């Protein structure tokens, strides 16, 4: 999309949101004027993040094709996985797995591979084995101790037979740090910034996948005790799950450590792959 097209789309979205009149946190007129800059900022982040996800997806798809020729085991497979990681710094681990769901070859940066391990019980691997279609996983805890998300593809032999697949892991937190921090101009080491805006991301099950306040990453919005006193946040969270884009207000603490309760304006939209969606949200304190 051209810069002009993105600007026009942002203006249309803003007008549609403003015309709606009512939000989960109350009437728009009860707060200061909605921010015109926020939808533009959100669309820039959306374009960058969606583009990055699609680039990674295409890289894994290409590796799947290369593995069709090389096979899923041996030096040829290992070379394909190493090349995938070397050319895509946002991927931290890649494995091939058999049609039974056992890891055949594992490559990762700074960790031990789990070759021979049965991963058929992992949701995205089970889906590949069942449907033979590519998938984008939910966030899960890896044995190395960090949360990751997988892009997985089936591998089809030159004879047209399903022989297993490839799974590549990315860390959503690191990917979003790299894309969001420059836009909001915040320091990823201190999580502090010099703009009025903040950013968070949520999966459709309520998992907080990213937040400038990193203590909230990994919490479940609808279950964690931190959020239960804030009904407007929970109500808006329900809207964020149900609606692919929108605008609203909620009250919450400045951060988990800073317990001052403030009103926040938010705009959200969606990125995703293979039918799985992430909601991405830009916020600012208005009261």
Automatic annotation (TrEMBL):
Domain of life: Archaea
One Pfam family of this chain: HK-GC-Chemotax_sensor
Domain annotation Dret-0059-like sensor: ranges: 51-172
Protein name per UniProt: Dret-0059-like sensor domain-containing protein
Organism: Methanothrix harundinacea (strain 6Ac) (Methanosaeta harundinacea)
Source lineage: Archaea, Methanobacteriati, Methanobacteriota, Stenosarchaea group, Methanomicrobia
